[in-house]
Amino acid sequence: MPRVLLIEDDPSVREGVELGLRRRGHEVRTAATGEAGLDALHAFRPDLLLLDLMLPGMNGVQVCRRVRENSQLPIIMLTARGDDFDVVVGLEAGADDYIVKPARTEVIEARIRAVLRRIEGPGAGKPAVESHGELAIDRAGLTVTKAGRPLTLAPSELKLLLHLSAAPEQVFSRQQLLEHVWEHSYHGDARLVDACVRRLRTKIEDGSGAPRYIQTLRGFGYRFGPL
């Protein structure tokens, strides 16, 4: 079972989530502050980070940015307010998903499994390594290079790129991407998709302001197709 690091300052939430995940077989380490969480990150080496957004001192967004400086560890943010502007900031900082508190353990478990599940399905029967302009996508090795330079993509970014590139020129709505990439079967939050697209573009596009690989079709969604 995946090893989970939980950074949460509310003792009741921290203890409840920890107990629920331990009962499901997870090894869990907890921390009450961002600073303590970063220390635990290096000592514990978790498979996934559950990160409270509103931490005292170093907040969740700052912790997320610090982690993303040198790691693509899957990150799920915990927030008490799903419409909070800070949710968007957290997603832009590199979080792969978020959960609104309070949340049942089975919901948290399902999100953990969705984030960690091995990428499969998109592009079945396609060449193991595809070339799209300067981009080379290795579906078997789950690696991406641009002009021969390896790119470091967070799990949600890689899943999104694999899904879009499996069907070039096909337009996917935000809801379709939520269902296939994040496995949110309900009417989910389109901010997850938009934030991930923006992060992915900073890594695969040339910065000219005119996206070459992922185009937006206003009112419809996104499509992949090198220009």
Can you describe this structure?
A hairpin with a 2-residue loop joins strand 8 and strand 9. With 227 residues, the protein is an alpha/beta fold. It starts with a strand and ends with a strand. It has a 5-stranded parallel β-sheet, with helices on both faces. Helix content is 39%, strand content 20%.
User: What is the overall pLDDT average?
Assistant: 88
What is the tally of helical segments?
Answer: 8
Please trace the helix and strand order, writing H or E for each element. EHEHEHEHEHEEEEHHHEE
* Widest beta sheet: strand line-up: 2-1-3-4-5
Please give the largest β-sheet.
Answer: 5 strands, parallel
The low-confidence runs, each spanning 5 or more residues with pLDDT under 50, are 119-125
Strand percent estimate:
15-25%
- Shape descriptor: globular
Features:
5-stranded parallel β-sheet, alpha/beta, 4-stranded antiparallel β-sheet, globular, single chain, about 40% helix
In short:
This protein has 227 residues and is α/β, with parallel strands linked by helices.
